[in-house]
Amino acid sequence: MTFPDDFPITHRWPPQHPDRLQLYSFPTPNGVKASIMLEETGLPYEAHKITLSDADVKSAEFLSLNPNNKIPAIIDPDGPGGQPLALFESGAILIYLGEKTGQLLPTDPAARYQAIQWLMFQMGGVGPLFGQLGFFYKFAGSEIEDPRPRERYINEARRLLNVVETALEGRDWIAGDYSIADIALAPWLRALDFYGARDVVGWADHPRCVAYLDRFLDRPAVQRGLNIPPRD
Ligand SMILES: N[C@@H](CCC(=O)N[C@@H](CS)C(=O)NCC(=O)O)C(=O)O
């Protein structure tokens, strides 16, 4: 496989710098994980805006990269063995970039598995559950009369927030040192504000989570990554 010739996504989103890592994304809580990680590591990359409209994420060109029609996705023209590597799923992208750059993924085995553990906690718990909370509390699902789905996701979000609050006792970052686990988790804590759901999950009663998110948002690379690619 050669890049860009063997990658149909480039027909619609052509690279200006084919030697650089290509990011296909939109600044949502999942999308910014990849852009923040790229900003933190300093790896040269080129960002392409893929909106969440069907015309983009369900286009044949994007599906050729991610058959699951979701951002973010990347192509590294200089992947393992010098071959191009295409990758989707933000957790896999974070692990890959951590390993490629030797940054933000500890090399000590115990610390490494702690970081991966919290990354998985976000991928399998916080992300899907908070996402459903957003749907049932703010978006189309908020019009559904049956209160049970809404209550279910509010209660689960509260429970998950308590888990994070407890885990942050005596530490600045979720797995000890700043890592890919924080880049996965903190954007989802931030999303509670976007969903207008802070009060309903008792955000202010979680002072360690509040301080943790402030600490994350204070990082210059995070501020840059939150707006890549620009929405407009
Ligand atoms: N598990 C995936 C989830 C990605 C995801 O849900 N992306 C959303 C935006 S935050 C998306 O692309 N939605 C478009 C769609 O579902 O049509 C990951 O972590 O990469």
The CATH C-level name of the largest domain is Mainly Alpha
Structural class by helix and strand composition:
alpha+beta
Task: Note poorly predicted spans.
Answer: none
Helix content: 40-55%
Overall spatial form: globular
Structure, explained:
38% of the residues are buried. The model has no long low-confidence stretch (mean pLDDT 98). The longest helix is centred in the middle third of the chain and has 29 residues, at 109-137. Strand 3 and strand 4 form a beta hairpin. The chain has helices at 9-12, 31-41, 54-57, 60-63, 90-101, 109-137, 148-167, 180-194, 198-201, 207-217, 220-225; strands at residues 21-25, 45-49, 73-76, 85-88. It is of the alpha+beta class and 232 residues long. The chain binds glutathione. The site of glutathione (GSH) has 12 residues, from helix 5. InterPro entries: Glutathione-S-Trfase_C-like, Glutathione-S-Trfase_C_sf, Glutathione_S-Trfase, Glutathione_S-Trfase_N, Thioredoxin-like_sf. Residues 18-105 form the GST N-terminal domain. This is GST-like protein.
Give a brief description:
The protein is an alpha+beta fold.
SSE layout and pairing:
Blueprint: H1 9-12, E1 21-25, H2 31-41, E2 45-49, H3 54-57, H4 60-63, E3 73-76, E4 85-88, H5 90-101, H6 109-137, H7 148-167, H8 180-194, H9 198-201, H10 207-217, H11 220-225
Parallel strand pairs: 1-2
Antiparallel strand pairs: 1-3, 3-4
Helix pairs in contact: 2-5, 2-8, 6-7, 6-8, 8-10
The chain binds glutathione.
Glutathione binds at residues 28-31, 52, 57, 69-71, 89-91.
